[in-house]
Amino acid sequence: MDDRPLYALRTEPSPEFAQQLRERLKRQGGAVGTQEAQWPTRRVIMTAMAVVGVALAFMLPSVRASAQAFLDLFRVVNFTAVPVDHQRAAQLRSEELDIERLIGSQVEMLVNPGPPRSFASPEMAGAAAGFEVRLPRARPAAVELTGILLAGERAVRVTGDSTKLQHVLDTLGIHDVRAPEALHGQTATLRIPPVVRVRYRYEDQQLDFLQGRSPEISLPAGLDLPALGEIGLRILGLEQGEAGRLAQAIDWRNTLLVPVPISASSFRHVEVHGNRGLLIGTAATAGERPPNILVWSEEGYVYGMVGQFQPKTLLEMAHSVQ
Question: What is the pTM of this model?
């Protein structure tokens, strides 16, 4: 069965909307030049993604008799960038909000991946992961493959807590929406299959090429996904009208939000092997060299390149993956 037609978003937010969003966030960001070096790229992205994941997983409408409920399975096959300004990033990191503590108390580890394992060859790593490891055939001269690691399967169950989610909304000053009481005690299961990381190096530049089967999340059926997605977008800092328009444009059954700082020099959708991807370029600042990022999905697998290589180089390498 060819399920690639399912990979596309239903509609694409207009270029005008995207430009207006970027300009608004830049106005809110204040003195960007003095703050760029303070942006902890990896941690902010992971924290914000966790917030959105909890919001989407547990803002459930009233459910009929549980005996009639069944689980929908959603797979990540698309990526959409959402600009996050420095003020909102600081709020998500603040001790007052303490997102990691709030989320951590709701998470139950079902499958522990253990420490990553090192392998001498892509073939050996692929045999352990259960899939064939693909590599880019086109690489800049003098680029060396320096390591191959395998992260084992991870599975977690997250239990909804309406009080804690409401605390997040209140702390962020979001008063036009409330955490539904019906989410309390509801559960979602997230499964991340094994991920192979191939590491490359060129002089002082490093690149990680990651690949694995698409993550899956199981939720109770009958969710109003656009409405839930809108609340997640509000948590990331979008205003009510903007969040509503974008939430209606996204296919929430297969799309993962990727929060990016407004200091990113560019972010755009690209095509890799005929599949939709997302390319994020970041500008180097004094004391920090944030990574450029390319992510795409292909035939049930998710691929990512993260490192200091130039965006153009990332695309060239991605197109050569076999």
Answer: 0.74
